[in-house]
Design brief:
- The complex is a heterodimer of chains A (278) and B (305).
- Chain A has 278 residues and is of the alpha/beta class.
- Helices cover 41% and strands 23% of the residues of chain A.
- In chain A, helix 11 packs across helix 12.
- The radius of gyration of chain A is 19 Å and the shape is globular.
- Chain B has a two-stranded antiparallel sheet with strand order 1-4.
- Chain B is globular and about 65 Å long.
- Chain B has eleven helices and four strands; from the N terminus they run ααααβββααααβααα.
- Chain B is mainly alpha-helical.
- Chain B has one domain.
- The chains are: A alpha/beta (278), B mainly alpha (305).
Chain lengths: 278, 305
């Protein structure tokens, strides 16, 4: 029995706020172990789609199906109250950085392993008594955290408060933290926002490593076209809440509808972006 | 000078009790952003549970003081923690998504419920107990005949406070629960997204706060030898003042503020006027709010972007 090649299937998704239609009858699929990018001009409804997928909004209509590697299937529109992150294992980041600024980099990664540690600690009791199995679990969690810190080059700053790290490091730490929660689908909302060229290069490497080494599927909203074109396996383009293009990076880049949409947004930038994509 | 040292000792003991209560205020404020006005009454409940446990133990013929103290401590911590958990569960959690004032009003109501319940159940009169811990040391005796006394009960109060504070600090700084608590304090949504059970963490915060208040209640009982249903009000407000003085939300600040309020109150009583000791303590609250709104160790409110 083979599991569906699509980890996430969105069908006829609609989201209305009063009279405003933010997302209109959107259907797309994100493939397993691929990086799917969701792009579009400002106000296209990308973040709204994210908020529907991660349960922050209840969609006005449509369905979103998530299928784990083991075949377990979840209808995301029916899960409430953080069950999407807990049960369906969808992790997300936000446009603005939401690390725990007062906690150390290491602690940030430890909190994300809460669920594992919770089970091992026998819901706190064994943990407080210092039972060996919990100590081992704690040690393993620290180990996982260390490996991630190593991967993002922050081992030396493990004990620094996350809020004191440079901006680019915070971005990558946030992604590492999301990965520590062991997600099946990782949703990143503009991870390259505000990064300089070097930092966004490091970010691309990190995302590719996540896909290649861990086989985690990634859904990505991004404005930085160099990042999108470099790492995406598949691109979905939204404009005014409607899907206008869907396909491989090359095909999407040459799609006249996409060019037009971006032209509508800002002529020079759009052309520049489309050309610099290669 | 001897008089000064005596007051210093008295002030530190009183401050320890205030500090233990203040931690409950500051923890709850840190995690849910509300002032738990019922916390003073939780302290009072702790005192009563200690009293009842003490009487039960004595009536079944237990006389070995250290065992009595330990059992009283554990029982009052456990039962009071249950009170704290229940109060949060029935009076605050349903209102968490409500407007900001709702939980505070509910807390004031809960405060009356607890104190009136104690009044009805235990009577309005002051309940005294004979001194449990007696004796002490004379540290220094001046020529004028004034002796600086350090009683055993004072030692017990301070040592218990220090030990519990050490355990508590370890809990917050080093354990999984402490991490979860700090995470919820900084970003509840994100913590929930990462799998932290926010409701449970908040419940545990109330439980720990109540357990520390129970210790304070028991220490109060040992030190003053009495409890009454109304003692939670003034002690609670003073501990709240201590939490504000230390910087609300800051745990070391709460202890520091508690010690400061204890010392100020004691010295004021010793050198100025006993009648006005509460006025002195509350004047501090007003002065701090005007000139040092973030308190001694508090961080200024960071604008969330």
């Amino acid at each position: 029995m083979s599991v569906s090649p699509d980890i996430l299937t969105v069908e006829h998704l609609s989201m209305r706020f009063g009279g405003i239609v933010a997302v209109n009858d959107l259907s797309f699929a994100a493939k397993r172990r691929e990086i799917t990018a969701l792009i579009g001009p400002n106000g296209a409804g990308k973040t709204t789609v994210f908020n529907c997928i991660t349960g922050f909004y209840r969609p006005s209509g449509g369905s979103m199906r998530l299928v784990h590697d083991d075949g377990a299937t979840f209808q995301l529109e029916r899960l409430h109250d953080y069950r999407i992150s807990k049960v369906a294992k969808v992790a997300r980041t936000f446009q603005n950085i939401r690390l725990f600024p007062g906690m150390t980099a290491l602690e940030n990664l430890m909190v994300a392993q809460h669920a594992t540690l919770m089970r091992a600690s026998g819901f706190s009791l064994l943990g407080l008594l210092g039972v060996p199995s919990f100590r081992e679990a704690e040690a393993r969690a620290i180990d996982v955290a260390r490996q991630w810190l190593d991967r993002i080059g922050l081992v030396d700053r493990a004990d620094d408060a996350a809020g004191n790290l440079p901006y680019g490091d915070q971005r990558r730490l946030e992604i590492a933290r999301a990965m520590c929660s062991g997600p099946a689908l990782l949703c990143l909302d503009e991870p390259a926002a505000g990064l300089n060229a070097t930092e966004s290069g490091a970010l691309s490497d990190l995302l590719l490593a996540i896909r290649n080494d861990f086989g985690t599927s990634i859904l990505l909203i991004e404005h930085d076209m160099s990042v999108v074109m470099e790492i995406s396996d598949h691109i979905v383009v939204l404009d005014h809440g409607v899907k206008i293009s869907d396909g491989e990076p090359r095909a999407v880049r040459d799609d006249p509808k996409v060019v037009a949409a971006y032209l509508g947004a800002d002529e020079d930038t759009a052309i520049e972006v489309m050309e610099s994509g290669t | 000078m001897d008089y000064f040292f005596q007051q210093l000792i008295n002030g530190l003991v009183l401050g320890s009790i205030y500090g233990l209560i203040a931690i409950g205020y500051t923890m709850v404020y840190g995690i849910v952003g509300m002032i738990n006005f019922a916390h003073g009454d939780i302290f009072m409940i702790g005192g009563f549970i200690a009293l009842i446990t003490f009487l039960v133990l004595v009536s079944i013929g237990l006389t070995f003081v250290p065992v009595i103290l330990l059992v009283v401590l554990l029982v009052s911590m456990a039962v009071t923690a249950l009170y704290g958990w229940t109060v949060e569960r029935i009076a605050y959690r349903p209102l968490r998504q409500s407007f900001r004032l709702a939980p505070m009003l509910s807390a004031i109501g809960m405060s009356f419920v607890l104190s009136n319940f104690s009044q009805v159940a235990q009577g309005a009169r002051v309940k005294p107990i004979p001194p449990v811990i007696t004796g002490g040391y004379t540290l220094h005796e001046s020529a004028a005949g004034f002796a600086v006394q350090l009683s055993n009960v004072q030692i017990v109060v301070v040592v218990t406070t220090v030990v519990l504070l050490a355990i508590f600090t370890w809990l917050v700084a080093r354990t999984r629960f402490g991490r979860d608590m700090r995470a919820c304090e900084q970003d509840q949504t994100m913590a929930a997204l990462l799998g932290v059970d926010v409701d449970r963490t908040i419940s545990m915060t109330f439980v720990i706060g109540a357990a520390l208040a129970a210790v304070a209640g028991m220490m109060y009982l040992l030190y003053y030898g009495l409890v009454d249903f109304f003692m939670g009000f003034v002690a609670g407000i003073k501990a709240f003042t201590a939490a504000v003085l230390g910087g609300i939300g800051s745990l070391p600040g709460a202890m520091l503020g508690g010690l400061a309020i204890g010392l100020i109150e004691t010295f004021w009583s010793a050198y100025c006027s006993v009648e006005y000791k509460d006025v002195a303590a509350f004047s501090i609250l007003i002065i701090v709010l005007i000139f040092l709104p973030t308190g001694l160790l508090g961080r200024p409110e960071v604008e969330k972007v």
